[in-house]
């Protein structure tokens, strides 16, 4: 959700080659680090979060479980947005997710949180949402926040009902015509339908629509299935497409 900036010239440097220094009978060994990675250490010192801090140290990073961050953003969403303009924050799935399932990372992103840890071994909705955001980064591992989340004086808020300062709302229309070879071991129940879901940073943008159900799994056809989405922050909206049966939901591939 953000880019890593280079540290100042006074940041500590680490040698790329191992050196040994003998002092009496003891030996001190310097472990080699890649220089560009070593410079990031100054920005990633994990410290506990103190509510209401007014002069945060940009070299410190806070970390929260998804339960903790849900409580914090419910009580003080704007405070979290302002905090992420000056610090790195990381969220992670709660330990009770023994099945390695994922939470919705958009909960973190919509409040400016830069790092949302994901269980990559579980291909569920949270996994696909994370994949959808970072697929446009061409493998770099990061994307830039929208300017509305970083600009001082911006009117951005997850519960806003009008476009934020500096952004333009958009209307998106999607029409579903037909499908092919929908039948599989995952869809033994009839009928089936297509679900179109928008996952966005602004709660008003989050919408779901369904096509009419179809009993034809080989070549289903949907007539008059046009969906209209009004998006107030389109740069932070993702489209999730699913095939829905009576008993289960699966992602359309």
UniProtKB/TrEMBL annotation:
It catalyses: a 1,2-diacyl-sn-glycero-3-phospho-(1D-myo-inositol-4,5-bisphosphate) + H2O = 1D-myo-inositol 1,4,5-trisphosphate + a 1,2-diacyl-sn-glycerol + H(+). Residues 1-27 are annotated as: Disordered. This is Phosphoinositide phospholipase C. GO terms for molecular function: phosphatidylinositol-4,5-bisphosphate phospholipase C activity. It is an enzyme of class 3 (hydrolase). PANTHER family: 1-PHOSPHATIDYLINOSITOL 4,5-BISPHOSPHATE PHOSPHODIESTERASE BETA-4, PHOSPHOINOSITIDE-SPECIFIC PHOSPHOLIPASE C FAMILY PROTEIN. The keyword Ribonucleoprotein does not apply. Pfam families: PI-PLC-Y. InterPro entries: C2_domain_sf (IPR035892), PI-PLC_fam (IPR001192), PLC-like_Pdiesterase_TIM-brl (IPR017946), PLipase_C_Pinositol-sp_Y (IPR001711). Residues 37-149 form the PI-PLC Y-box domain. It comes from the Eukaryota. Residues 1-17 have a biased composition (Polar residues). Transmembrane segments: none annotated. Its EC number is 3.1.4.11. Keywords: Hydrolase, Lipid degradation, Lipid metabolism. GO terms for biological process: lipid catabolic process; phosphatidylinositol-mediated signaling; release of sequestered calcium ion into cytosol.
């Amino acid at each position: 959700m953000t880019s890593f900036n280079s540290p100042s010239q006074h940041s500590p440097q680490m040698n790329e080659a191992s050196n040994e220094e003998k002092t009496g009978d003891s030996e001190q060994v310097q472990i080699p680090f890649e220089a560009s990675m070593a410079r990031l250490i100054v920005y990633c010192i994990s410290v506990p979060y103190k509510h209401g801090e007014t002069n945060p140290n940009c070299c410190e990073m806070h970390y929260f479980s998804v339960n903790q961050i849900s409580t914090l953003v419910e009580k003080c969403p704007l405070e979290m947005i302002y905090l992420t303009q000056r610090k790195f924050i990381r969220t992670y799935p709660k330990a009770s997710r023994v099945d390695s399932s994922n939470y919705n990372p958009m909960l973190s992103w919509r409040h400016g949180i830069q790092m949302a840890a994901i269980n990559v071994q579980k291909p569920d909705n949270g996994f696909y949402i994370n994949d959808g955001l970072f697929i446009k980064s061409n493998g770099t591992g990061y994307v830039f926040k929208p300017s509305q989340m970083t600009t001082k004086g911006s009117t951005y808020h997850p519960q806003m009902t009008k476009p934020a300062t500096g952004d333009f709302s958009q209307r998106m229309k999607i029409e579903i015509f037909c499908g092919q070879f929908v039948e599989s071991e995952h869809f033994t129940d009839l009928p089936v339908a297509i679900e179109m879901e928008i996952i966005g940073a602004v709660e008003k943008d989050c919408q779901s629509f369904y096509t009419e159900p179809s009993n034809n799994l080989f070549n289903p056809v949907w007539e008059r299935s046009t969906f209209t989405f009004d998006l107030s922050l389109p740069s932070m909206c993702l489209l999730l497409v699913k095939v829905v049966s009576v008993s289960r939901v699966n992602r359309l591939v």
